[in-house]
């Protein structure tokens, strides 16, 4: 297949880069680390085997290494683990989203459940370490690395992150795990070790929120993960659903994927506020009438198309993905959070808990006026449409033009004039109540 031969070329290319070339600082930093950690074995052992083996074993770059390179960092023997599938009925959930689609908010629905080991954007470190070029073949390579790291994480191998943590953890203890405080599971029970006197938790860049804890011991986190009934994570760094196929087919993982989407007009409006640097061209257009160049439009089109490709694949229910994919619109969650939470939990095969319902109640009914951009504390049914008053119609129009097929698929109505855009009595949502559900 075309994708396969693409992998072949790319994987070979990446392997060659990692092994032979050391000019690229970032890649060599990773390989240096691998060399350091696994001295004689790997970079030699990987010589030619990686391209051949990776391709036969589920097209995976790390698949060949996940058992050799990555796992030998893991003192698995420390934790007895009889059934490789984990506790009976264990479910694995990936909340797949893009930035500004409300994924932190929806992720909390799972973070608040004490039966779930929840990770918040664990690929953040991977993205920072393995910086591939934004375009072309390397995007595929990074997707493969992301995918294989996700696989290890779903299997509760948190040590896999050590390859990407800077500075490198000592004795599996790190002071720097991105947004640790956003994962309840990393801040409670045994994982929350007592802070050392005169420092401890306060030296962490992303400390726990509700209590002070010592530095994160990944061994304890791994143990906690194995003791929880289910594992879930939210990420904005996985783009293509098709890449997850090997995880779905992995017998140790009982995976469900929720793709969370939002009206592309709202997403752009929100990104213009949240990432003013990156979306400067759009802001300039809004403020000064300077029309953005084709490259900006191409980027937008690319984003919309990749969302559509994943959704279309999921909704087409191929055999390998049957009953494992759910498309969820953020707007539907914002309008009926409790109902949608039940829907997502039912889909995931996980029982909703009173604590989840309580969190939803507190965080969607009241509006204590938080200004935090990443706040999940909002009057959801009121907030989610604010952008309609802020986004100039001409920008909405361009988004509609560029993203029309995606908007049609997701059921977002196009508007023809500025009045309708700003008229919040005119709903932009078409009924898509039974998206993706069998
Ligand atoms: C390179 O890989 C081949 C197998 O493809 C193996 O026979 C050979 O020993 C490897 N070379 C080194 C130096 O490990
Ligand atoms: C981390 O936790 C493990 C398991 O309890 C323990 O054996 C180890 O000593 C801890 N590491 C450090 C550096 O405290
Ligand atoms: C939240 O927004 C809804 C819809 O606008 C409104 O009916 C409700 O009164 C608001 N709740 C609070 C506490 O502001
Ligand atoms: C706003 O939309 C509603 C529902 O479509 C419509 O009845 C109303 O006339 C619109 N108001 C304005 C000012 O256009
Ligand atoms: C398509 C493919 O190669 N699938 C394989 C993925 O890996 C599992 C376990 O190693 C195999 O059983 C599949 O045949």
TrEMBL record:
Sulfotransferase domain residues: 91-411
Record's keyword terms, sorted: Carbohydrate metabolism, Glycoprotein, Golgi apparatus, Membrane, Signal, Signal-anchor, Transferase, Transmembrane, Transmembrane helix
Topology with respect to the bilayer: Single-pass type II membrane protein
Chief localization: Golgi
Source species, domain of life: Eukaryota
Family matches, as Gene3D superfamilies: P-loop containing nucleotide triphosphate hydrolases (3.40.50.300)
The EC number(s) this enzyme carries: 2.8.2.-
Compartment(s) where it occurs, according to its Swiss-Prot or TrEMBL record: Golgi apparatus membrane
Catalytic EC class: transferase
GO BP, sorted A to Z: carbohydrate metabolic process; N-acetylglucosamine metabolic process; sulfur compound metabolic process
Family, similarity comment: Belongs to the sulfotransferase 1 family. Gal/GlcNAc/GalNAc subfamily.
Name recorded for this polypeptide: Sulfotransferase
């Amino acid at each position: 297949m075309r994708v396969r031969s693409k992998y072949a070329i790319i994987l070979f290319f990446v392997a060659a880069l990692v092994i032979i070339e050391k000019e690229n600082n970032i890649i060599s930093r990773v390989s240096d680390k691998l060399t350091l950690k696994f001295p004689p074995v790997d970079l030699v052992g990987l010589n030619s085997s990686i391209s051949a083996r990776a391709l036969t074993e589920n097209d995976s770059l790390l698949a060949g290494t996940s058992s050799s390179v990555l796992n030998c960092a893991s003192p698995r023997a420390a934790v007895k683990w009889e059934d490789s599938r984990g506790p009976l009925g264990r479910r694995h959930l990936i909340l797949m989203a893009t930035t500004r689609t409300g994924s932190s908010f929806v992720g909390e629905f799972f973070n608040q459940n004490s039966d779930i080991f929840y990770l918040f954007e664990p690929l953040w470190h991977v993205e920072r370490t393995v910086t591939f070029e934004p375009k072309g073949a390397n995007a595929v390579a990074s997707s493969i690395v992301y995918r294989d790291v996700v696989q290890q994480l779903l299997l509760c191998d948190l040590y896999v992150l050590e390859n990407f943590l800077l500075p490198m953890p000592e004795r599996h203890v790190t002071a720097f795990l991105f947004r640790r405080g956003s994962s309840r599971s990393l801040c409670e029970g045994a994982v929350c070790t007592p802070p050392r006197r005169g420092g401890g938790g306060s030296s962490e860049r992303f400390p726990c929120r509700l209590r002070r804890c010592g530095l994160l011991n990944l061994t304890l986190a791994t143990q906690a993960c194995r003791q929880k009934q289910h594992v879930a994570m939210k990420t904005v760094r996985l783009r293509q659903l098709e890449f997850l196929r090997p995880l779905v087919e992995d017998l140790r993982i009982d995976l469900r994927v929720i793709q969370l989407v939002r009206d592309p007009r709202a997403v752009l409006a929100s990104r213009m506020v949240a990432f003013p640097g990156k979306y400067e061209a759009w802001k300039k257009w809004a403020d000064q009438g300077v029309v953005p160049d084709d490259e900006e439009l191409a980027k937008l089109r690319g984003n919309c198309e990749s969302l559509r490709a994943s959704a279309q694949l999921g909704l087409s229910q191929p055999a390998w993905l049957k009953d494992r994919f759910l498309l969820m619109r953020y707007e539907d969650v914002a309008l009926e959070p409790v109902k949608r939470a039940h829907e997502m939990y039912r889909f995931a095969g996980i029982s909703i808990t009173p604590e989840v319902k309580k969190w939803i109640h507190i965080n969607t009914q009241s509006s204590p006026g938080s200004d935090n951009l990443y706040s999940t504390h909002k009057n959801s049914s009121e907030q989610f449409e604010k952008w309609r008053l802020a986004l100039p119609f001409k920008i909405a129009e361009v988004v509609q033009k560029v993203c029309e097929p995606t908007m049609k698929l997701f059921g977002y109505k196009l508007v023809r004039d500025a009045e309708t855009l700003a008229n919040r009595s005119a709903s932009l949502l078409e009924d898509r109540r039974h998206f993706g559900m069998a």
